[in-house]
């Protein structure tokens, strides 16, 4: 008789940071080190001790073909991540349609909570969810003058 043994895998929180070459013009406030500081402080303040930092340094937010993001996505799809935390929506991505695909559809399907610390976005708060797409559109218009990047 075979005995099935179920292994409990402790999920972790993904802290995602990104900096593109264009973002470097915005100064230290978007630096990788500054983003990591903000996200680890958030983790500590919220009792999160089990996390992994994923980073893309020098990659544009206009697409999601980034090594750190793809590694994080693979871990999410493998069921190893319970929550994704970013400094703000622009660090996650600049294409609001793709951002929405992940934050509004894919992550909820996979049971992954999404938090953008400085934007006050938390997918556990329905009120935040209602305004997230609009925030992202407005930010991207200000960033590039175009809605799609």
Give me some keywords for this one.
single chain, 149 residues, alpha/beta, five-stranded mixed β-sheet, 5 helices, globular, disordered N terminus
Account of the protein in words:
The chain is an alpha/beta fold and 149 residues long. Helix content is 42%, strand content 18%. The protein contains five helices and five strands, in the order βαβαβααββα. The protein has helices at residues 32-45, 67-77, 89-92, 96-110, 126-144; strands at residues 12-19, 51-57, 81-86, 113-116, 121-122. It has a five-stranded mixed β-sheet, with helices on both faces. Strand 1 (12-19), helix 1 and strand 2 form a beta-alpha-beta unit. Helix 4 runs antiparallel to helix 5 (126-144). The longest helix is centred in the C-terminal third of the chain and has 19 residues, at 126-144. The radius of gyration is 16 Å and the shape is globular. Residues 1-6 and 131-144 have low confidence and may be disordered.
Morphology call: globular
**pLDDT average, as an integer?**
83
The count of strands amounts to 5
* Gyration radius from CA atoms, angstroms: 16 Å
* Biggest sheet layout: 5 strands, mixed
State the distance separating the first and last CA atoms.
Answer: 58 Å
Q: Residue ranges: pLDDT <50 for 5 or more in a row?
A: 1-6, 131-144
């Amino acid at each position: 008789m075979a005995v099935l043994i179920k292994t409990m895998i402790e999920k972790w929180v993904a802290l995602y940071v990104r900096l593109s070459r264009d973002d470097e013009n915005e100064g230290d406030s978007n630096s990788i080190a500054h983003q990591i500081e903000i996200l680890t402080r958030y983790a500590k303040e919220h009792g999160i001790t089990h996390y992994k930092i994923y980073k893309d340094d020098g990659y544009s937010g206009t697409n999601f073909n980034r090594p750190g993001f793809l590694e994080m996505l693979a871990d999410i799809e493998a069921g190893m991540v319970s929550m994704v935390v970013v400094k703000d929506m622009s660090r996650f991505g600049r294409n609001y349609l793709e951002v929405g695909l992940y934050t509004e559809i894919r992550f909820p399907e996979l049971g992954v909570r999404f938090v953008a610390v400085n934007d006050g976005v938390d997918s556990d708060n329905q009120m935040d969810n209602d305004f997230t797409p609009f925030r992202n559109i407005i930010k991207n218009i200000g960033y590039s003058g175009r809605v799609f990047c």
